[in-house]
Amino acid sequence: MKNIKFLALLFIGLLAFNACEDDDSLTYIAEPSGEFSFTNSFLSEYTLTPGTSGNLGERFTWDNADFGVQTNVSYELQKSITGDFSDMEVIGTTDGNEYTLTIGDLLDYAAEAGLDNDPGTENPDTGSVYFRLRAYVGTDSSVEMMTSTQALTLVLPEDIGSGPVCEFDQLYGVGAGLPDAGWGWTTPNVFTCIGNGVYAANINLQNNGGADNNFRFFTSDGDWASGRNYPYYADAGYTIDANFENAMDGDSNFAFVGTTGYYYLEIDDTNKTITLDSPQSYGTCEFDQLYGVGAGLPSAGWGWTTPVILNCTGEGVYTTVVQLQNNGGADNNFRFFTSDGDWASGRNYPWYQDAGYTIDASFENAMDGDSNFAFVGTTGTYFLTIDDNNLVITLE
Which of 68, 109, 329, 395 has its CA 20 to 30 A from that of 174? Predict the structure, then answer.
């Protein structure tokens, strides 16, 4: 009888053990659940130049793929030139939620797609490369999820050859009327050759009631003998903007008689004009302008009526004079944008940090919902530079 009871108990225990095993096996079955897609915003086109090859091209982001259970998930970013992924290449894997490509990576893919910027060939300078993201469970590649295909339109600007031609590569401005320069050679204003015989710069001009408003142009850095004063241009037949006059000082310098402010100054040796205008772009950049919006930029605020405009003023360089606000840590956040009025075109603090930029210590991550820039310096007016070539953001 005891043996019969023991066998009965053993049989019941085996049934319970098998039931537990069955329950456990059901617990760990992974099946795709819900949607899986990229979460970042994509540009309508990506302009690629070798000079910016080290810059961030695109950062793909996504939310965790849901397989219905707690399990390790891996992600692989796939590329296709044909678009049907018959030529699929895995370009990277990660267990995180983002993967970045540089401009250099996109240039390589453009070359694979047969694009070039040589006007002497029949190859197109614009085309698409296709991407998708695959998520899979652990080492079981049969359990997977896939995003829809995302096309990136790549553009290679036409090679325009040697560029503009001027008598000098640059002209220099020195004098009290140019407060960023003053009467010295430490920080002269530099007027770049931007077109055949045309020099230009966005500069600060000063007129304190007729005082401290004189300056002169020079053809050689540090060489006082290379100066070109007001009579030099007047006698050569130049039409000179009415905001300038002969200072009638010992050197017949230029006198700025307009309203102190930030201007675009252009010297055109071809058409013999010297003109003033509102600040504008004149360099070669990915975008003609960047835009600043946010509470930390009091002239802009969180709206698009009067955004701060950073003009392209060099090779990959954006600059502006801007008022920055820090009310004891409040009202100090803002963000840059690549398109006027387009919130999706924003570039926040991590965007530049992840791309390897050295960012001025007066800026920090605001650690708000959008990881905006926070200005932690002293409220005031500054000269702001974003240099996409040297990967720096500076304040002066």
Answer: 395
